[in-house]
Amino acid sequence: MKNTKDIRIAIISSSFRMEVARALERNCIARLKRSGVTRSQIDIFRVPGSLEIPLVAKKLAAKRTYSALIAFGAIVKGKTYHFEQIANECARGCMDVSLAYEIPLIFEVLAVYDIKDALERAVGTRENKGVEAAESALSMIRTLSDI
């Protein structure tokens, strides 16, 4: 694995449902710090909503300065098809970026049926997606450096 001092991570967070994104960020950063990544090695970029995440991810991946990208947001099902459109296209766009630039893009844009479910995954201690995102990013950095 790369020495943690050489790791740079970019977090891309949706400003919509900010309480979820901020909780995910806090838990992710805390976990990264416990692994030896300093706060100065982590950049945070905010976008208006989840659909804007893939474009910013693409621009960041093209810079080739980051070891991994992490996407945070929450999409809550309403009464229209909009939920599916945003969730599916955000996921597809992020996967496209990851494959095109061969960079880990950890996808924790939570598509849920109730905001309470997103908050439980963002602030909970049993299943915390911010912590899982940090662990996945570090694992992927390690795996790719071994290839």
Main attributes of the structure:
about 150 residues, alpha/beta, single chain, 5 helices, Rossmann fold
Structure description:
- By secondary structure, this protein is α/β, with parallel strands linked by helices.
- The protein has a single domain (4-146), classed as Rossmann fold, CATH 3.40.50.960.
- Helix content is 51%, strand content 20%.
- It has five helices and four strands; from the N terminus they run E-H-E-H-E-H-E-H-H.
- The longest helix is centred in the middle third of the chain and has 20 residues, at 82-101.
- The model has no long low-confidence stretch (mean pLDDT 95).
- Its EC number is 2.5.1.78.
- Belongs to the DMRL synthase family.
- InterPro entries: LS (IPR034964), LS/RS (IPR002180), LS/RS_sf (IPR036467).
- Pfam families: DMRL_synthase.
- This is 6,7-dimethyl-8-ribityllumazine synthase.
In short:
The chain has helices at 18-34, 53-63, 82-101, 115-123, 129-146; strands spanning 9-14, 42-47, 68-76, 105-112.
Layout of secondary structure:
Blueprint lengths: L8 E6 L3 H17 L7 E6 L5 H11 L4 E9 L5 H20 L3 E8 L2 H9 L5 H18 L1
Parallel strand pairs: 1-2, 1-3, 3-4
Helix pairs in contact: 1-4, 1-5, 2-3
GO biological process, one term: riboflavin biosynthetic process
Keywords: Riboflavin biosynthesis, Transferase
Pathway: Cofactor biosynthesis; riboflavin biosynthesis; riboflavin from 2-hydroxy-3-oxobutyl phosphate and 5-amino-6-(D-ribitylamino)uracil: step 1/2
